[in-house]
Amino acid sequence: MTDDADSRGVGTDRDALADPSASPDPSTGSDPSTQTDSSIDSDPSTPTDSAADPDAPVDFADLSLPQRTFVAAVQNPTRGVAIVALLAFAFSFYVAFWLVFPRVAAFVSLIGAILAGVIAAVYVLLNRFAA
Fold this sequence. Notes:
Blueprint: H1 3-8, H2 13-18, H3 38-41, H4 65-75, H5 77-100, H6 102-130
Helix pairs in contact: 4-5, 5-6
């Protein structure tokens, strides 16, 4: 048995408690399938939730935006480099737009800033009402 199997309790009494076809426990005189989980919860070495197990998979929805970005970059670094290159290319066009048509660029930037402010306000309001 490996250390990982030991920490998960493989081959211990917990397997007998989880199996409904297990024979009655001779030490207690009762059927293990009818026992409550209180005996399992009283063991301090048993993790009570998935947060205590470092090997438990993390739900992607629980990650913050920077953490999601990091995970995506680690899983596919070529895509991350391509996205950064496209963003740099788009920024260069934005700078050129300001250099050639400064009034139009200022107007479009003002509209974009107003829309970003409205979206941020809606996001904040929805988060406050959801809590």
